[in-house]
Every structure is written in C-alpha cells, then in structure tokens.
Amino acid sequence: MNPEFAPLFKLGRAERLQLVEDLWDSIAQEDNQLPVAEWKREELRRRKQRFLEHPASGRTWDQVKQRARAQHD
C-alpha cells in the first residue's frame, strides 16, 4: 500500500465505496475523451450497418454470456 493513500483506508466503508465510484466515474469520463482511430470508427459503422440490414443476426446479452461461458468450461 502506498503510504500516501493510508488516510483513505481510515475512511468508513460507505465513504470508501463512494470514493471508488467517484474514481471509476472519473476514469470513464477520461475514456470518453480519448481519440478513436478512424479505422475503428469505420469498423463500428460497418457493423452497425450490417446489423441494421440484418437485425436477426445479432445476439442478446444472455446469448453472448452463454457462448462465452461455454467456451471456457
């Protein structure tokens, strides 16, 4: 543990949880500010267009989770 952060570990549980949430939120905001390469944008456009043309080709979140779990069993 970094001694500089030692006072944070003395906070109450609720305060530490709030701190974690605030840290995650700040990281998420920074991620939104990162530039996205043009090739990635083009790939996202291509996938969106394919989905719009063939909506039944998509999978639900539950199907994606089941497939991922089956691959790792």
How many DSSP E strands?
0
What global shape is seen?
Answer: elongated
* Number of H- or I-type helical stretches: 3
Rg estimate, integer Å: 20 Å
Largest sheet: none
Mean pLDDT, all residues: 92
SSE ordering: HHH
Rounded to the nearest angstrom, the distance between the terminal CA atoms is 35 Å
Share of helical residues: 55-70%
**What proportion strand?**
under 5%
Tell me what you see in this structure.
With 73 residues, this protein is mostly helical. It is built from three helices and no strands. The two termini are 35 Å apart. The model has no long low-confidence stretch (mean pLDDT 92).
In short:
Helix content is 66%, strand content 0%.
List the topology elements:
Layout (H helix, E strand, L loop, with lengths): L12 H21 L4 H16 L7 H11 L2
Keywords:
73 residues, elongated, mainly alpha
